[in-house]
Write a structure and sequence with these properties.
CATH topology of the largest domain: Dehydroquinate synthase-like, alpha domain
Oligomer: single chain
Strand order of the largest sheet: 1-2-9-6-5-3-4
Radius of gyration: 20 Å
Helix content: 40-55%
CATH superfamily of the largest domain: Dehydroquinate synthase-like - alpha domain
Bound molecules: nicotinamide-adenine-dinucleotide, glycine
Distance between the termini: 49 Å
Shape: globular
Largest sheet: 7 strands, mixed
Number of helices: 13
CATH architecture of the largest domain: Up-down Bundle
């Protein structure tokens, strides 16, 4: 079925620029994909949950090519080097060469793993992102961060490697459960807080529509999120500066995910609590007013996300886990904090006692 309407954004990276197509029914629009597939060899990487839902539809649109599939187990706990190797096994078994193309069909776990496989198979082959969760549509599929987890730290093994195209079929959200939808909203809220206060206000007014899966509201939130992210990545692809702002809430969030065991708290849930913790710390530093902190917490709560870390992780444990963050430089923890809604900054200039107070909040 042809999509009636779709929108295209461009992530501007010179000769590595790529389109982000957003709209309903795009999985079946082969003409959007084909220009980005260098040869006949295509490996679709997906998982056992998504395959029965969308694999056949995608394969049908790639008719005439040598399309193989690699179906991984489903879950954050499988985002590791051992499972990654299965992608290489499939590529080598099928004698895929340097002209091949990998297609990630799934959420952020599949996207991150497929991208990393593409970055390292024969020192780099083409790949396309087809994100199917809200979180992956608004964040992980755009910008080229790829990788896997290590038992000692989240996303610690990886590469910057850009896809050739991102195809967002908004209809795939129809099969996503409510908990996963909320997890994606955490990353959407993040953009408003970083540098888009108008979007934050829009979210305050439209969160109910998003939770009710209003197609127009979701498409708008996805497009605005991708546009915000694309602008940051175009300016700082390898995170030497402002891209670190996209990690708002993530230092706290990654500590929660790692500490609880991968897969226990969803990434977006951990980010939701992490955003509130970053806002709480900012308020304690006098950078965010109490009224603004209340707005942040209210929006995260309305999105049906946690606003506090889990009881199982006492402050000392959170501190240890936060010390493994990729933003740590020369042993110093740096955090993304807020100087008002829509004004994030990366800083190591916060009081340790204030951080302790944030970590010690009553759960
Ligand atoms: P996920 O990939 O685990 O997907 C969530 C669940 O939804 C899975 O069970 C999946 O099988 C299922 N699913 C996916 N699409 C579906 C659909 N359309 N219908 C029904 N079920 C569906 O989780 P996620 O939230 O998409 O991604 C989280 C991962 O993304 C984390 O590993 C995180 O580190 C990573 N991430 C990466 C970046 C980046 O810039 N690369 C940014 C944010 C997050
Ligand atoms: N999700 C953070 C980034 O892409 O930089």
């Amino acid at each position: 079925m042809m999509s009636e309407t779709f929108r295209t954004l461009t992530l501007d990276l010179g000769d590595r620029s790529y389109p982000i197509h957003i709209g309903p029914g795009l999985l079946a629009q082969a003409e959007l994909l084909r220009p980005h597939i260098p040869s006949r060899q295509v490996m679709i990487v997906t998982n056992e949950t998504i395959a029965p839902l969308y694999l056949d539809r995608l394969k049908a649109s790639l008719e005439g090519l040598q399309v193989e599939e690699c179906i991984l187990p489903d879950g954050e706990e499988y985002k590791n080097l051992e499972i990654l190797n299965r992608i290489f096994d499939r590529l080598l078994e099928q004698r895929f060469d340097r002209g091949c193309c990998l297609i990630a069909l799934g959420g952020g776990v599949i996207g991150d793993m497929t991208g990393f496989a593409a970055a390292s198979y024969q020192r780099g082959v083409a790949f396309i992102q087809i994100p199917t969760t809200l979180l992956s549509q608004v964040d992980s599929s755009v910008g080229g961060k790829t990788g896997v987890n290590h038992p000692l730290g989240k996303n610690m093994i990886g590469a910057f490697y850009q896809p050739r195209c991102v195809l967002i079929d908004t209809e795939t959200l129809d099969t996503l459960d409510d908990r996963q939808l909320s997890a994606g909203l955490a990353e959407v809220i993040k953009y408003g807080l970083i540098d888009d206060p108008g979007f934050f206000a829009w979210l305050e007014n439209n969160m109910d529509l998003l939770l009710a899966r209003d197609a127009g509201a979701l498409a708008y939130a996805i497009e605005r999120s991708c546009a915000d992210k694309a602008a940051v990545v175009a300016a700082d692809e390898r995170e030497s500066g402002m891209r670190a702002l996209l990690n708002l809430g993530h230092t706290f969030g990654h500590a929660i995910e790692t500490g609880m065991g991968y897969g226990e708290w969803l990434h977006g849930e951990a980010v939701g609590a992490g955003i509130c913790m970053a806002a709480d710390l900012s308020c304690r530093m006098g950078w965010l007013s109490q009224a603004e902190l209340d707005r942040v917490i209210a929006l995260v709560r309305t999105a049906r996300l946690p606003v506090l870390p889990p009881r199982q992780l006492p402050p000392q444990r959170l501190r240890e886990l936060m010390a493994v963050d990729k933003k740590v430089l020369a042993g110093k923890l740096r955090l993304v904090l807020l100087k008002g809604i829509g004004h994030a900054l990366v800083t190591d200039r916060f009081d340790q006692s204030v951080l302790d107070a944030t970590l010690e909040q009553v759960r």
